[in-house]
Amino acid sequence: MKKALSLLLVGAMTLSLAACGSNSDDSAATDSTTAEESTTTEASDSEGSGEAVFRIGGIGPTTGSAAVYGTAVERGAQIAVDEINAAGGINGYQIEFNFQDDENDAERSVNAYNTLKDWGMQILMGTVTSTPCVAVVENTHEDNMFQITPSGTAVECIQYPNAYRMCFSDPNQGTESAKYIGENGLASTVAVIYDSSDVYSTGIYEAFAEEAANQGIEIVNVAAFTADNNTDFSVQVQQARDAGAELLFMPFYYTEASLVLAECNSQGYEPIFFGCDGMDGILAVENFDTALAEDLMYLAPFVATSEDEQVQSFVTAYQEAYDEVPNQFAADAYDSIYVIKAALEGAGATPDMSVSDLCDAMTAAMADVTYSGVTGKDITWGEDGEPNKAPLVLQIKDGVAVEL
Amino acid sequence: MIGFISYLVNGISLGSVYAIIALGYTMVYGIAKMLNFAHGDVIMVGAFVVFSTVSGMGLPPVIGILISVAVCTVLGVVIERVAYKPLRHASKLAVLITAIGVSYFLQNMALLIYGANTKSFTSVVTVPPITLADGALVISGETIVTVIACIIIMIGLMAFMKYSKSGRAMLAVSEDSGAAQLMGVNVNSTIALTFAIGSALAAIAGVLLCSSYPSLTPYTGSMPGIKAFVAAVFGGIGSIPGAFIGGILLGVIEILGRAYISSQLSDAIVFAVLIIVLLVKPTGILGKQIQEKV
Amino acid sequence: MKMRNLSKTTRSNLITYGMVIAAYIIVEIFLRADMVSSLMEGLLVPLCVYVILAVSLNLTVGISGELSLGHAGFMCVGAFAGATFSKCVEEVITSSLLRFPLAILVGTAAAALFGILVGIPVLRLKGDYLAIVTLAFGEIIKNVVNVIYLGRDSRGFHISIKDTVSLGLEDDGEVIIKGAQGITGTPNDSTFLIGIILILITLFIVINLINSRTGRAIMAIRDNRIAAESIGVNVTRYKLLAFAVSAALAGTAGVLYAHNLSTLTALPKNFGYNMSITILVFVVLGGIGNIRGSVIAAVVLTLLPELLRSLNDYRMLIYAVILIATMIFTSSQGGQEIQERIKLFFKRRKTKEA
To answer: What is the distance of C-alpha A123 from the center of its chain?
Structure first.
């Protein structure tokens, strides 16, 4: 019986090896197999596959507990790709976009990166989450491939010259939050709840704590939670309440925030709530009682309700395609694709250039790119790859996020 | 002092959720002698059914819960039939791996149907909260309902085991399934019944879990499932009152550990206490002594 | 009869070694000819990691007969110990050829130490209780690693379980382990060749252990503890030995893992019970106690999700179905009958092993 099993396994292995082998033998053949189901664009653009196209890859979690972010990025980017292709492409060339799942795992992310390389990726729009991004940036650096992460916030995500960022970095948000609270005199005593198992949350908290001291804000209580323990917040909320904090700083995602708000409500605790860009999307949580989030303030690069023309056209297109309101991840991804377009146009690049040449040309062009999109206006990039854009402070009033 | 009592109440609140999940776990383990890793995911399915029927279709909560119980019961029986029954005489490990496979299957199925976005679950509990000591101590309606439901289910299960014919058949199968078969007990249908009851309990647990902690994703069930499993082992796996006590204790330890020691190490504390208990008393708190072993 | 048996095991073991070496040579030829896809190239080191993990867990589960659900915890210890070491000596020892073997030794030793520490209390328990306690230990390790902050400056090492600020580092200080953010910037020292060498060493240790006096004692305890005890086998010692060796090898795999990616974090995903279960799946599907089976299953099951990539959201679902189907096919009575029939069909020798 064991023998039969091992025969079966050996057979499977040989098969899989053969499959892998053929992958490399003929990259055109791989195309058709990977492209078939992986993304929807290919179907519409495949007739152009004989001609030169720009191949942009995307990486992010579309399964697993972080799937919501990856899915949003995939969709946001898709909208941009479709728009650009419909308008004639970049420098006259169409774009092909291929998005791969990494389950928010560094190892899988590198696998996804290699899969995309086999597909012929020239530019990477990713990865969505920080930890995988830190791993993948090593590879793009080695291959000298242009990379822009829509939402990888950790400092190390873009530690190399080939990598750029669309969103704010962690320290940036923490500092901005503390400044805003201090300068507007929102509160003198603050309690913090943060996710100690999450790079994003910890990074913001640390920068916040540093800046809070400068702003004369007293942090009266700090309580952490972890990814394994993100449903029960009774202790953290009670500690904040007992410490008498006037403001509760919540540098984490809206999923947990909705639970914290519910817990505060049931304990009858009503501080000022202040969050970061991870809070964006809380109003879109299906079935969420928006009254709980009333008066919540948060930093965000993007408001779906903004009257800005670009934002409106993006939101409309997104809603038509996916029947939901885009969050900031989708918006960052949408902008990322346009930034890639701007850099390619600035460099006058063509798809026949090598990955490395493209990267050099694009990084040179990035210095002059000034981009206005849905997540900010007149954004420029420094040598370090960080965007220069001002965060918006939003507040939820009557169930709608408004700019302050 | 009031702070401590408040933490204690929170602990009991969390513990009662663990307890109600652990009851289902212990039931299945006691009779089928298998670790049903997919139990946590059946809970998630139960919660999603209520979400779809109550929040989506606007049915009254009672109807939604009944539909959910029905769906989970059928699901439990189907899972048993398709995945576990063929392995009745296989090694324990084979069954464990299959259970893990079922768990992945349910999670990914839910992911395909409902997507990854978090859903906010509307509490089905309408009992008002009790406010004591000028608002310093609040006992939520969910806590009250969960604790009461837990006690009712526990007593009901114990009575069912002791007095009903099928219950005694379950006891017989759990003692010695071979001998039970010889005595005319239909082992297959008894085990199927166990899964049916266990899964029905999972549906109720899912509703109460999500009423207390109103966020729902395809992965909602997995961590509470593991914790409840720990609770069941803690109390002596297979023992019905043990599951209840284990669940409550686990919740209280977790909350007190988080409040007074470290909020990041609360899981480590829970697991450390479990290890100590098992080393002192290798069959859990109520292992063995209790005769109503299911 | 005895001689024939002996030579049969030797032959079987030689085939196992040969298989690994042949795989290495084939892959190396393909690499030279530049015919390996980037995906496969990137997967080579992880494959080695999982093979080592599967083989080492098989020692506990298959040979020693203890169901352990905390294997990833030891991997975690090895990974963090090895990566910390590498980070510390990166400037002193610049040659990765010297540094990496030392890192492996450090990681392996640390994991072995934890194996002994965990093993002493845990091995008193049996069956499912042992499983849950190993799971608990694995979770504790992961949980504790997540709150450790380790920094170094001119005054030496500083450790904290709060945050980087409380390390009180001098200006020249450097944070090595940054709590949940783990270790970043570990040198990428892992190569396929080192991975293969480590697999061979692992196989050598495990296979020799099995076929030694010690191994027979361990299996005697597995098959009948009381009988083994009554003929004077020191049960605790042998069980602990197997457990510690298994943990140490998991630590080795951890070091390899840590030096393959530049970022190392203890997430539920890579060092939690889910990982332990994944490794257990390799062992069970490869055949409990079957070392070669573990190697093959680890390779196939690591490749499978990657090969199913084009199916996107359906791939984990398919993985689950394959898992269930394989278990039913290999372990159920009905499945075994079908296998028998297939065997007859191919006119294979009608040996009734199962």
So the answer is: 16
Q: Which domain holds residue A246?
A: 171-300
Count of the separate structural domains present in chain C = 1
Peptide bond into A127 cis (omega under 30): yes
C236 touches chain B (CB under 8 A): no
In a shared domain, residues A223 and A104: no
Same domain, A159 and A144: yes
Write the ipTM: 0.84
CATH number of the CATH domain containing C63: 1.10.3470
Residues A175, A106, single domain; the answer is no
pLDDT tens digits along B40-64: 999 999 999 999 999 888 889 999 9
Cross-chain Cβ contact B116/A63 below 8 Å: yes
- Helical (H) or strand (E) element with A246: none
A36 touches chain B (CB under 8 A): no
**Residue A224 contacts by C-beta under 8 Å, 6 or more apart in sequence?**
A193, A194, A195, A196, A236, B263, B264
How far apart are the C-alpha atoms of C111 and B76, rounded to whole Å? 40
**CB contact, 8 Å: C331 with chain B?**
yes
- For B85-129, what is each residue's pLDDT tens digit? 888 888 888 888 899 899 999 999 998 898 877 888 888 888 888
Residue A196 touches partner B, C-beta closer than 8 Å = yes
Full-model pTM: 0.85
Q: Dihedral (C-alpha) C159, C164, C170, C176: value to the nearest 10 degrees?
A: 60
Interface residue of B105, B250, B261 to substitute, partner C, most C CBs within 10 Å: B105
pLDDT at C53: 96
> Does residue C212 form part of some domain?
yes
Residue A32: pLDDT band by 50, 70, 90 thresholds?
very low
CB A285 to CB B217 under 8 A? Answer: no
Instruction: Say whether residue C327 is in contact with chain A using an 8 A CB cutoff.
Output: no
CA distance A344 to chain C (A): 25
Distance between CA atoms of residues C342 and A348, nearest Å: 63
Closest CA to C234 of C123, C115, C131: C123
Q: Is residue C351 part of a domain?
A: no
Contact B109 C317 (CB under 8 A): yes
Would you say residue C352 lies in a domain? Answer: no
* Strand stretches in chain B, DSSP E: 119-120, 130-132, 137-139, 215-216
Q: How many structural domains are present in chain A?
A: 2
Higher-confidence position of B244 and A268:
B244
| Contact between residue A278 and residue A252 where contact means Cβ atoms under 8 Å apart | yes
- Closest CB to A131 among C263, C290, C343: C263
Which residues, at least 6 apart from C285, have a Cβ–Cβ distance to it below 8 Å?
A5, A9, B97, C293, C297, C301, C323, C326, C327, C330
Q: CA-to-CA distance for C169 and C344, rounded, in angstroms? A: 71
Are A287 and A324 members of one domain? no
User: Which A-chain residues 208-247 have CB contacts (< 8 A) with chain C?
Assistant: 209-210, 226-228
Domain range for C275 is 2-345
CB contact under 8 A, B215 and A238: no
Tell me the nearest-neighbour CA distance from B144 into chain C, angstroms: 30
Identify the chains in contact with A, defined as 3+ C-beta pairs within 8 A. Answer: B, C
Which domains are delineated in chain B? 2-280 (1.10.3470)
Return the pLDDT at A29: 36
pLDDT score for C161: 78
**CB-based contact, C39 to chain B, within 8 Å:** no
Which residues of chain C have a pLDDT value below 50? 1-3, 352-354
CA torsion angle for C346, C349, C353, C354 (degrees, to 10)? 20
Min Cα separation C47/chain A (Å): 11
Confidence category of residue A15, pLDDT binned at 50, 70, 90: very low
